[in-house]
Specification:
Blueprint: H1 2-12, H2 18-28, H3 35-59, H4 61-64, H5 81-100, H6 103-120, H7 132-152, H8 159-189, H9 195-198, H10 200-220, H11 226-243, H12 245-262
Helix pairs in contact: 1-3, 1-5, 2-3, 2-7, 3-5, 3-6, 6-7, 7-8, 8-10, 10-12, 11-12
Length: 265
């Protein structure tokens, strides 16, 4: 049983949740959620992310075996039953959201769940279709997560909220392009025609453009306070200097959008 629980955790890849869990919680704290909404958000987001990564592990096992940078638990002795347990929990999460939230919230959550499964699972497997791999990621690991949190907090879709949703979508594109660039050799060997595999030049351009646009957009949404702007720039420049330009983008985007929420509280 302990081994099985460990495998369930491993196939869920919680280390990969950080950016995407943050997107959902960022949406939630656009308003002032009550305790019930916050608990539903935490559980349903964790379940959703576990499902996304577990299903990806299941259908990427063959290509991951070719990639020395991938540590797919299904290639390390864990059985498919661990993935099935995660999926069963996702069914419970869907029921919980259906019972405890308005229909529009449930529909956003259901749409995201179906899309994230379709990304990895055949016969659709959006991951293997150049263009749709990027577009789907923008929604299921970006805009829909943010809007799900927003709707749970029961606030209106005002222009500032929609502007943040747009920046989240662009940042999601950056995260996806970065991942595809790193995996393109092994994706190609596995038979997936990702955007990076089919159009490598365009992929690189989109990587740089999405990074620049998300960072710039996030800073523009920050408080006009000079202290806040300078603090974000200083921390981000240090992160970029020590860890590379991609971390500069991460820091500018995440810190700026997070501080914009803190200002509202």
């Amino acid at each position: 049983m302990i081994r099985f629980i460990k495998c369930v955790i491993l196939v869920s890849r919680p280390k990969g949740w950080k950016a995407y869990f943050w997107m959902g919680m960022l949406g939630l704290f656009q308003g002032e959620p009550n305790f019930r909404a916050a608990m539903v958000a935490v559980y349903s987001l964790a379940s959703y992310l576990a499902t996304a990564f577990a299903v990806n592990n299941l259908f990427d096992a063959a290509s991951d075996a070719l990639n020395p940078c991938k540590d797919n638990p299904l290639n390390k002795g864990c059985g498919k039953s661990a993935v099935y347990a995660v999926i069963a929990n996702q069914v419970l999460a869907l029921l919980l959201v259906a019972v405890n939230t308005p229909i529009n919230v449930f529909l956003i959550y259901l749409a995201a769940t179906l899309l994230v499964v379709a990304y990895s699972a055949p016969p659709i497997r959006l991951k293997g279709i150049a263009g749709l791999d990027l577009l789907s990621h923008i929604f299921y690991f970006g805009i829909l997560l943010f809007l799900y949190g927003v709707l749970l907090s029961n606030i209106e879709m005002a222009p500032p909220v929609l502007a943040k949703a747009s920046v989240i979508g662009i940042y999601s594109a950056f995260l996806q392009m970065r991942n595809m660039e790193k995996d393109k050799v092994y994706d190609e060997r596995g038979g997936d025609e990702t955007l990076s595999v089919k159009y490598p030049g365009l992929s690189r351009v989109l990587l740089y453009l999405s990074g620049a646009a998300s960072a710039t957009g996030a800073v523009l949404l920050l408080s006009p306070s000079l202290t806040a702007i300078l603090s974000v720039l200083l921390v981000s420049l240090l992160a970029g200097y020590w860890l590379g330009w991609e971390r500069l983008v991460d820091s500018l985007t995440v810190l700026s959008l997070s501080l914009s929420v803190v200002r509202l509280l």
